[in-house]
Specification:
Rossmann fold; Jelly Rolls; 8 helices; alpha/beta; globular; 21 strands
Length: about 425
C-alpha cells in the first residue's frame, strides 16, 4: 500500500532532533523509542534492542528525488565517532570524530527512487515479475543508519535538491548496493567520496548482464530520471561472459549493447562513462590471473570509437591484488569462517564478490579514474581521503568501516 505524503512535502525542509538537549526551532524531537508510523511519516524501523548502541535505521517518507542531508554531530559530554549509511548500506560518512563539547556539521546528497516510471511501467528486481521487492533502495522511505564506535547525531535536516547532479550506476554484483554483510559493491562506497550536490543512484543488481539489465527495464528507469549533465557509469562483464545466445561475445553482442547504452544516455543530454570490469581473484605462479581480458578490451574499444571516458578498473584491480599478495588478497573478497555473521553457518570462500574493504578500495580506484578521465566531475569530489595508488592499498586492519546489522536472509549474491 502506498504511503501518504504530507501536503507539499517534496518542497519542505524537514528537521529532526535526536539529542536530549533543549528544543530546536522547527525540529521534530525523536525519542529513542520513536517507531516509524505512516501517521507521523518518520521514526525508527527497528525497536530499540537491549544494547542501546546497536545501530538502527531512522526513516522518513519522501517522494523520488535527490535530497541534501545536513547533520550536526557531537556531544556536550562525550567523544563521538559517527559513520552514516543510507538506504541499502550506502556509505555516506566514515568515522567523523569529535571531542567532548565539540560539534561539527556534515552535508551530503542522497538519491531516492521508486520502481515506477512512465505510464504504469516498473523496473524489476531479480525474481520479481511485477516490480522490485521493497529493499531499502527501492521502497517509499529515505532511511539512515547511524553507526560507529560512539554515534553522536544531534540533528538531521532533509531538503529536496532537484538541481543536484546524479551519477547513475549500471552494473552487476560487483557494483550494486549489497543488502547484507559481509558483501559490498564499489558503488556502495562511492557516495562517501562526493561533495554535497552530487547524488549516486546505484541501480546495479547482482547477476545481471548488459542485456538482462535492459530487459528488467533498469536502463529505461535511469533514462526516465536522467537530466542534462547527469552521468551514467557502466560496468558489466562478469555475467555477460556467460551469455549463451548465438554469436554472443565480448566483441559482438557485448560491444554492441555497450554502444546502445552510450547512445541512449547521450540522447538524454547525459555523460556516459565506461568502466572496465575488475578481475576475479585467480592466482597462478604467484601472480593474479586474467579472466575478463576480452571484455575489458571491448570496453576500451567502445571508449575510443565513441569518444567516451574509460576508467580502467580492470588494470587497477590487478595492481591492487598484486600489491596485497595471494594470501592477503582474500581480505578484499568474502573469505570468512563459519558463524562470522548472523545466519552464516558455512565458511565463505568467494573469489568474485568483494568485502567492504575490497569494495572501498575499488571505489578509491574509480575515484582516481574520475580525476583522470572525468575531470569536471572530479571537481565535485571531497578532498579527503586524498589520492590513492592501487599498488599501495590501505592496510586492511586500518580501514574501519563499521558493520551493519544483518537483516533478513543472508545469501551469497547472484553472479560469479
Amino acid at each position: 500500500m502506498a504511503l501518504l505524503m504530507p501536503s507539499g512535502f517534496a518542497e519542505e525542509v524537514r528537521r529532526f532532533q535526536f539529542s536530549a538537549s533543549e528544543a530546536i526551532d522547527g525540529a521534530a524531537k525523536v525519542a529513542p523509542d520513536e517507531v516509524f508510523s505512516t501517521q507521523k511519516g518518520y521514526g525508527y524501523l527497528e525497536k530499540a534492542g537491549a544494547d542501546a548502541k546497536d545501530p538502527r535505521r531512522f526513516a522518513l517518507q519522501v517522494p523520488e528525488g535527490n535530497y541534501d542531508i545536513t547533520l550536526r554531530l557531537g556531544s556536550a559530554s562525550e567523544a563521538t565517532q559517527t559513520s552514516v549509511k543510507a538506504e541499502t548500506r550506502r556509505l555516506m560518512l566514515l568515522g567523523v570524530a569529535t571531542k567532548p563539547g565539540e560539534f561539527v556539521t556534515r552535508k551530503f546528497t542522497v538519491n531516492v527512487r521508486r520502481p515506477e516510471y512512465g505510464s504504469g511501467e516498473k523496473a524489476r528486481l531479480n525474481g520479481r515479475e511485477t516490480g522490485p521487492s521493497m529493499s531499502p533502495s527501492w521502497d517509499e522511505l529515505l532511511s539512515f543508519e547511524f553507526n560507529g564506535a560512539q554515534p553522536g547525531v544531534v540533528t538531521l535536516q532533509v531538503e529536496p535538491n532537484p538541481a543536484a547532479t546524479t551519477v547513475f550506476l549500471a552494473g552487476d554484483s560487483t557494483v550494486t548496493d549489497q543488502r547484507n554483510e559481509p558483501w559490498a559493491g564499489w558503488g556502495q562506497m562511492l557516495p562517501s567520496f562526493f561533495e554535497a550536490g552530487v547524488a549516486v543512484s546505484n541501480q546495479a543488481e547482482s547477476g545481471l548482464a548488459l542485456f538482462s539489465f535492459s530487459s528488467q527495464k533498469r536502463l529505461e528507469k535511469i533514462l526516465s530520471m536522467a537530466k542534462k549533465g547527469d552521468y551514467l557509469f557502466i560496468q558489466f562483464g562478469h555475467n555477460d561472459q556467460k551469455d549463451k545466445r548465438e554469436g554472443a561475445g565480448a566483441f559482438t553482442t557485448y560491444k554492441k549493447e555497450l554502444e546502445s547504452y552510450v547512445t541512449a544516455f547521450r540522447g538524454k543530454g547525459g555523460i556516459p562513462v565506461l568502466v572496465t570490469p575488475m578481475e576475479r581473484r585467480r592466482w597462478k605462479d604467484g601472480k593474479p590471473q586474467e579472466s575478463l581480458t576480452d571484455y575489458a578490451a571491448a570496453v576500451r574499444q567502445v571508449g575510443k570509437e565513441m569518444k567516451v571516458p574509460v576508467i580502467d578498473l580492470h588494470a587497477m584491480s590487478l595492481k591492487l591484488y598484486t600489491a596485497l599478495g595471494e594470501k592477503d588478497s582474500t581480505k578484499a573478497f568474502v573469505f570468512y569462517p563459519a558463524n562470522s555473521f548472523p545466519n552464516q553457518k558455512e565458511e565463505l570462500k568467494d573469489n568474485t564478490h568483494h568485502s567492504t574493504y575490497g569494495g572501498y578500495e575499488l571505489a578509491r580506484c574509480v575515484v582516481e579514474g574520475i580525476k583522470a578521465e572525468v575531470p569536471e566531475l572530479g571537481k565535485r569530489l571531497r578532498a579527503e581521503p586524498g589520492s590513492f595508488d592501487p599498488s599501495q592499498p590501505d592496510a586492511p586492519e586500518k580501514l574501519a568501516i563499521p558493520a551493519s546489522p544483518v537483516r533478513g536472509e543472508n545469501a551469497t549474491p547472484a553472479g560469479s
